Amino acid sequence: MEEVSLSGRVAVVTGAGGGLGRAYALELARRGAAVLVNDTGGTLDGTGQTSAADAVVEEILGLGGRAASNQDSVSTPEGGEAMVAAALDRFGRVDAVVNNAGILRDKSFGKIDWDDFHAVQDVHLRGAAYVSQPAFRAMREQGYGRFVFVSSNAGTFGSFGQASYGSAKAGVIGLAQVVAIEGQRHGILSNVVCPLARTRMTESMLDAPEALSPEHVAPLVAYLASERCRETHQVISAGAGHFARVFTGLGAGWQADPAEVVSAEAVAEHMDRILDSSTYSIPLSAPEELEMLAPYVAARTAAGQAV
Ligand SMILES: NC(=O)c1ccc[n+]([C@@H]2O[C@H](COP(=O)([O-])OP(=O)(O)OC[C@H]3O[C@@H](n4cnc5c(N)ncnc54)[C@H](O)[C@@H]3O)[C@@H](O)[C@H]2O)c1
Fold first, then answer.
1. For residue range 97-117, what is the model confidence (pLDDT) as tens digits?
2. Do 207 and 288 fall into the same domain?
3. How many other CB atoms sit within 10 Å of the CB of residue 82?
4. 165 part of the active site
């Protein structure tokens, strides 16, 4: 098997003071990367600050790796800039960013407090953008880069009580896909991991601590952060050593009579065909979806109907 090496590479891992981020940082360092271990070290709801990142740096140094600690928050543009500047100052370049930092402030939709909602969005969605933009600029200069964004099944499929978290995590996928599209011509790849592991974030929901340990997710992150990775624009679910693609497909659908403006009743009657997912394609950008719709637009234009 060809080795997955990060030798000579520099990685920034946000929220790496514990849980999944710590496992990612250790695995990247074990494979040769110099790692900027970022974490504010707060509680699960994002309050407080501790030196959690320092302990992980000690661990990496103790194993003979290279690492530096950073406590900037991902949740402001200044924090993102400072973090990437710290990696550049310390290690000279930034090759990979793992946007892992996260908090939870779960509440059912009817009870949401907007300060909580915004705080969750600030860390997961805006935070990923604040860290990634300065890194993207540095990667563009060097013609090489790897982004690993972290989403969740709460974002892809929804989860009770997680409107703030789920919407932020779905937004992360949109962000990652645009970065993939804009990064490709600069040698920058961008993919998303939807992890499942027992950490402080999930300990009340998940049993089987060993089967669901973060170490089972870290190999995918190491691959996606490495030079060996060729994929981009992908979303992959990972937990307990099981890995699977998550995708948004476009069904074959139902085409109304091109000579008529369709009625709401006709839409209702054809809902089964509209929702049928036995045949689908997976567009890799918005223009690709438009190309797939082009024959229907052409048929309607030929029939003399306004599009
Ligand atoms: N554990 C799972 O099963 C699971 C499932 C889906 C997604 N995720 C995602 O994986 C990521 C890691 O979660 P985890 O389960 O390891 O939980 P965790 O709470 O152990 O890790 C999150 C880390 O992010 C840090 N952090 C919070 N706000 C920060 C900020 N503003 N700046 C920098 N660091 C900050 C925290 O201090 C913490 O160490 C999160 O993005 C989470 O949403 C986890």
1. 999 999 999 999 999 999 999
2. no
3. 17
4. yes
